[in-house]
## 1
Amino acid sequence: MLDIILERFNYIPIIILMMTGLYVVIATGNLVKRLVGLSLFQTSVFLLYITIGKVFGGQPPILDGAHHGDEEGSHGAGYAAAGHGEAGGDHAAADSHAEPAADAHAGDHAAEAVEHASDYAAGADAAHHASEVLYSNPLPHVLILTAIVVGVATLAVGLALVVRIREAYGTIEDDGLNAADYNRETGGSE
Amino acid sequence: MDFLVNLLPSGLAHHAPALVIVIPLVAAAVAALMPNGRLGWIVAMVTASLVAFFSLVVLGLVLSDGLISYHMGGWEPPYGIELRVDALNAVVLALVGVMGLLCVIFALPSVGDEIEEGKQALFYSAFLVALAGLLGVTITGDAFNVFVFLEISSISTYTIIAMGAGKDRRALTASYNYLILGTIGATFFVIGVGFLYMATGSLNMADIGQILQEQGHNRVTQAAFAFIVVGLGLKAAMFPLHVWLPNAYAFAPNFVTAFLASTATKVAFYALIRFLFSVFHPDVAFVELSFTWVFAAVGVIAMMVASSQAIFQTDARRLLAYSSVAQVGYMMLGLGMGTAAGLSAGILHLINHAIMKGALFMALGAFALHFGVRQIRDLNGLGRTMPASAGAFTIVGLSLVGVPLTIGFTSKWYLITAALERGWWWAVAALIISSLMALAYVARMLSAIWMESPPEHHAAKPAARHAPYMVLVPMGILAFANLYFFFHADVLVGLAEAAANAVTGGH
C-alpha cells in the first residue's frame, strides 16, 4: 500500500492543491478570494500535466543532431515512455527524426540493430541499451503553456468583472450582493 | 448545396474548414480597430456572411464526398492538429454559421440601443472571437484543441454577457458566476483529456477512440469519462449543472442571448456526443450504463424541474432560459436512448430548438427595443401595438410547445417514436407532461400579449408599430422556418439522420 502511494508521490500535492482550490471556490463569499481558489485549482491541473511528461532519468528534450546515438536514444525513450503508459505522445517527434538515422545505423551494424529492434519490441529498457540519453516528454509542457495563457486570460476577465461589480454595488461579498439585488427587486431600501 | 461548392475555385473549397475559423479570428482584430459601432457591425456582418457561406460549403462537401480531414499546417494526424468533419459536425457547423449570420443582422438596432457607442466596435470584436471559438470546437479533431476553443469562446462570452450591465447591473454578477462555473467545467474537461492522454498517448480524438478500442478500458479512462461528461455537461447546461444559465440569459444584451441560446449550448452538446460516440464507444459497459442512468435520467428530471420552474418566472427572458434548460433535457433524453433513432431525434431537436429560441429571443429583443420589455407584465397588449413581432412570437411560442404544423411538433414526434421503439413508456409520459408545462408558460406570455390591453405609454409611441426591418427580417425568416420545415420535414430530418449515422454507424 505504501509502495503504491510512494510510486505516485507526484499526485499527492496535486490532489491537495486541487481540493484546496475547489473548496475555496465553494466556501468563500468574497469574489476575489474565489478567483484565488480558481487559480489554485487550475494550477494543480498544470502540475498534473507537467508531471506526467517526466520520464525518470530523462533529460530536457533537445535533440543533438550530430550524434546518431542520441537520436537512437530518443527513439528508445519514446517507446520506453509509451511502455510506462504515461507519455507515449513523444514518439511523434522521435519517430520522424530517428527513422532515417536508425536505417543508416542498421547498414553499419546489422547485428546490433537487430538486437535493438528486439529491445524496442520488448519496450522496457531500450533506452538504457541504446545510449545514456533519455528524454522527457515535451508535449505536456506545450499543452500547459497554452493552458496557462487561458488561465491568465480568465483571471484577468474575472478581476475586471470584480472591479465593475465593486463600482456598481459597492461590495464584493456574496451576501451584500444578494441583499442588494433582493432589496431592489422587492422595492426595499439598499 | 453543390451550387455553393461550384462557386468556389477548387483550391479554396479545399481550405474551407480552416477558413471557417481563421476568418472570424482575423476579423475580430479588424473589428476592434474600427472607430465606431456601425463600421464594427459591417465587419461583423461581412465576416458572418463569409462564415455562413463557408460552413454551408463544408456541409455540401461532406454530404457529397463524406468525411473531410484537413491537416493543419500539413502535419499528419495523429501528430498534427486535424480538422475532422463528418456529417455530425458539418450540420452543427452550418447551424452555428447560419444562426450567427441571422443574429448579426438583428444586432445593428439591438446593440445600438443597448450598448454605448464607444464600446460597440469592441463588443463586435468579442462576439467574433466567441463565434470563432464555437466554430473551432465544432470542427476540430483534436481533444486539447477542443479545450482551447471552448475557452476562447467562453472567455469572450463572459465579456459580452457583462455588457448587459448598461441596462441592469445584475449582468455583472451573472457573468461572474458563469465565469467561475465555466472555468471549473473547462478545467474538469482538461483533467479528463489529461487522463485520456496518460492512457493512450494521443490527443487526436479519432486516434484515441481507436487506441481505446484496441487496449480496452481501465480505471483511468473511466475517470477521464466522468471528468469529461461533467465538464461538457456544465457547458451544455445539463441539469443540475445549469445554474449559470438563467441569469446569464436574462441579463445579457438581447443580441447576446439570442446568439448564445441558438449556438453555445448546442456546440457543447455536440462535443458531448462526439466524446460519447467517437472517443468512448457506446458499446463499452460503463458508457452504455451512463446513457440510461445519467443522460436519460438527467434529461427527464430537467424536463420536469426546469419546465415547472419556468412557469413561475416573472422575467420573460429568464422564463425562456429555464425553458432552454428543459429543452436540453429533451436532447439528453434522445441521446440517452443510445439508438440511432434516439440520437437523430435529439439532434433534430437541437436544430429545431436553435431556430425556435433564436426567434423567441429576437422577438423579445424587438419588444425591448421599443418598450424596454423585460418582465412578463410588460408584454401586456403588445399584440395590438406591435402585431408583426407579436405574431412571430406567437408562432414560435406554439412551436416551443409542440403544436402540430410547427417544427416543435416534428421533433417531439420523432422523440416519442424513438422512445416507443426502445419501450420507454415513462419517457413518453415525461415528454407529454413537460409539453403541457410548456403550454402553461407559453400561454402566460401569449395571454399577456393578446388578451391584456396595452398600457398607456404605448400610445405615446405610435411610430413604433413595427420593429426595424433589421429585426423583422431575421425574426421573420426563423418564424417562417418554424412552419416551413414542418411541411418539408425531410430536409432537417435527413440532416439529423445523416449526423446520427455518422457516429453510430446506423444501428
Note: Confidence is low (pLDDT under 50) at residues 68-129 of chain A.
## 2
Amino acid sequence: MSHRRVIRLCAGLFVAALFFVPQVIEARYILHILVMAGIYTIMTMSWNLLAGYTGQLNLGHAAFFGIGAYTSALTAMNFGISPWLGLLGGGCVAAFFGLLLGFPSLRLSGPYLAITTIGFAEILRLVATNWVELTRGSLGLSGIPLLTPISIGNWTMKFYFERDYYYVVLVAALLTLFIIRRLVQSEFGISLQALRDDEHGAQSIGINTAKYKLAAFTISAFFAGFAGGLFAHFSRLVCPHTMSLHVTFDALTMTMIGGLGSIGGPILGAVALTFLSEWLRVLEGFFKVDIRLVLYGMLLIFTIMFMREGLVGVIKSLKDRFLGFGRASDGGADHD
Amino acid sequence: MESLFLQQTLNGLIIGSIYSLIAIGLTMIFGVMKIANFAHGDYSMVGAYTAVFFVAWVPGWFGWVGSILAAAAVVGVLGVVTERLVFRPVIGRWTDIDVIMVSIGLFILLENLAQLFFGATPRIISDPFKGATVNLGGLSTSVLRLFCLGFSCVTIAVLQIFLNRSKFGIAIRAASQNSFAAQLMGIDINLVYRLTFAVGAALAGIGGVLFGTTFAVHPIMGAMPTLKAFIVTILGGMGNIRGAIFGGFILGVAESLGGNYISMQYQHAIGFFIIILVLLVRPSGLFGAKEGT
Amino acid sequence: MTEILKTENLSKHFGGLCAVDNVSFAMEENIIMGLIGPNGAGKTTLINMISGAAAPTGGRIFFHGKDITGLKAHSINNMGIARTFQIVRVFAKLTVLDNVMAALVDRRRHGPWKLAVSSVFRGMYQTGENPESRAEAEKLLDFVGIARYRDELAKNLPYALSKRLEIARALATRPGLLLLDEPSSGLNPAELVDQIALIREINRQGITILIIEHVMKVIMDISDRLIVLHYGEKIADGEPEAVYTDPNVVEAYLGDDSHAEN
C-alpha cells in the first residue's frame, strides 16, 4: 500500500475511533475538556486560514467568536429561535463583521493592521460591556438555552450532558477541517498563499488581492462565529471577556505552537494545549502555583525562536529523518 | 462650562504626558530596530512594581522619587536582557509577524510571571504628596498629577538633549534613519541596539511608576499602556519621536474631552476610533513617512 | 503590423520628483523592444505604470487600442500583459510547480468566491491533482529549463533559476505582451547566452516583449527597436545601431558616469 494510503487509512480509523470515545470515557470532566478542545480547534483553524495561509495578522479574532456567541444566545433567548439556526446565524453575523474588518487590511499591514484589529475587538468588547439593555453588560448572558434535542433513528440526544455536546462539536470540527482543507488545497487556497508570499507578485499574475483578502476574512470570521455559538450553548454563559485579547492570544498561541500555515498544526496545538492546561491545573492544586500561562508565553517564544514550523514541523523533520519519505519541506500546504 | 473644558484639557494633558513618555520608548525601538514590541507595556508594569517595593523600603517623598529612578534602572536592565535574549536573534531574520508573535509571547510571559510572584491583588503606591491639591486660576488638580506632568516634560526634554547632543544619542538617531550606513560609519550597532532598548524600556518604566501611582498597580496593567503606546506611535508615525510626543498629548486630551462630552464608558475606545480613522486616510500615520512598497 | 501598446505623454510625479516625464511611444506586435537608460532614468517606473503596479499622474496607455490607464495590476494581467520584477518576487513557501500552477488559474472566468465554493462542493479544483494544469505547468517549467526543481520550495532556488521561474510564471498567464525588468542582472556570461535564446524563443512563439536591460550586449543583440530614457524623458527611439550612436544617448551615459558595457 502506498505511503499516502497508509496515512489515509490511519486517519480514517482515528476519526472513527473518536466517535467511540464517550463510550469508553464517561468522566464528564474529561468530556468537558474535549468539548472545549474541539471548540478551540475551530477557532485555531479559522485563525490559521487568515494568518497562516493568507498572511493577514488578525489580533481581533476573539471578536468574531464573541459575536457568534452573543448572536446565537440572544436570538435563542429573546426570539426563541432554535439554537441550531442560531449557530448558523452567529456565523453569518460574524462573517459580516469579518468582511468589515477586511477593508482596513487592504491598506494596512504588519503592526498597523494588528493594532486596527485589536482596536476593532476592543471597541466591540466595550460595546458588549456598556450596552447593558442588550447584553446585560459585564454580568453577561446566563441561562442560555441548551441545544434543542435531535433524534437520529432511535437515538435521541437531549444535550443535558457533555457527551451529547461532544458528538456535535466533533462533527462540527470535522466539518470545519473538511471545508478548510478543501479551500486550502485548491486554486482558491493557492491564490491565498501566493498573496501571502508576495502581494505584488500575486497581483502580477492576475490575482485580485483585495477580493481574496475580503473572502479570507469573511470565511475565517464565519467559522469563529460558529465556534462562538457552540460555546454559548455549551457553557451557557457569555460575557464581554469572551471577546478579550486573551482569548485571541490563546488561539494564536495554540496555532503557532501547533504549526502556522499547516492543516494539522492548529488542531494539534489546540488539543495539546487544552490538555496541557488541564494537567497544569491539577499541578496547581498540588503546588498552589498557576504556571499555565507562564508556560504558554515561554512556549510561544521558544516555538518562534527554535521551532518556527511548530509541532507539525518537528514531526515532519523527524519523519524525514527516520522514515526517509517525503522531501525536505517546511510549512506550506499539508498533503495529509 | 468653559472651565470644565479647560479642566478636562488639563487632565488630558497630564495623562497624555505619561502616554508620550511610554510611547517614545516604543517608537524609538521601532525606529532603530524595526521591532513592534507588544510587550512594551509590561516594562511599565515592572517599573510600577519596582516602585511598590522601593517605596516600602524608602518611604516618603524622597523614596518616591528614588523609586522612579530605581524603576528606570531596573526596567532598563530588563530591556537590555529582553533585547539580547529575545529580540536580537530576530532582527532581519524574520518577518513582521514573527517579531510581533515573539513579543506577544514575551507579553504573556511577563504578565503571568508578575501574577505568579506578586499575586493578582492590586497594590497601591501611596501618594507622596498626601493628596494635596493645587489651584491654578480656577483649575484644580492634585499636586501628584501636576508633578507627573512636570516630571514627564522634564524627562522628555532631557531625552531630546540626549538624542541631539550626546554621542550615544546621535548614534541612535543615525541608526534610526539608516542602520546600515550607521554601521559603515563605525557605529557599533549592537551597542546602539542595547542602548535603545535600555532607554526605551526605562522611559516606559518611569511612565509605569507615574501611572501606577495615579491609578493602581496590578499584573495585567501592562496591556493598556501597550495599546495606548501603539495608538500614539501610529498617530505620530512609527519611529518618529516628535510625533510620539505630540501624539501622546493629543490622545490624552482627546480621551479626556471625549470621555466627558461624548461618553465616559467608551473613553478607551476613542483612541482606537481615532487611529482607525487616521489609518484609513493615511496608512502610515499622521506624521509618518510614506513607506515605499 | 498592428500596434499592441501605445503610451501618450505618460508621466509619473512623486511629490516634487518627476520620475517619468511625458513619455510617448508605440510598439508593434511581435517585436522585441529594449528600454535602456542610466540608473534612475525611470525605466522601472514606466514598466510599473504599464503593468498597473503604479498609477500614472499624467498621460494615457493603450493596449490593443483599449485605454488601460490607471487600471489595477490584476486587471491588466487579465487583459494580457505579464511582467517580471527587477528583484525577484516568487512565492517563497510554495513549490516551484505551485508557483506556476497559481498563475495558470483562469482568473478571467473565476473569481475568489466562485473558486472557494466550487472547491468545497465539487472538490474538482485541486491543486496538483488537476492533470491538465499540472501538465501545462510542467511544460512551462521545462521550457525555461527548471523542470527538475518542480517540487523544490521556491525560496530554495538559486537566484538565476528563480528569475527563470518568474518568467515561467508570467508566461503561464498567457500574455500577449511580456514586460521583463532587468532579467539579466546577476547572471554570468554562460547564463546570459541561455537567456538570450530563451527570450528569442518566447518572441518567436508570438509574444511581444518589452525588456529593460543594463547589459548592452544583450539588449543590442535581441532588440528590434530601442528606447532610451534619461531623467524620465525619452531621448531616443529607433533601431539599435542608430540609437547606439546617437550623440544624445552617448552623452547621457558618459555624462552620468554610468558604464555602458560593450
Note: Strands of chain B lie at 133-136, 139-142.
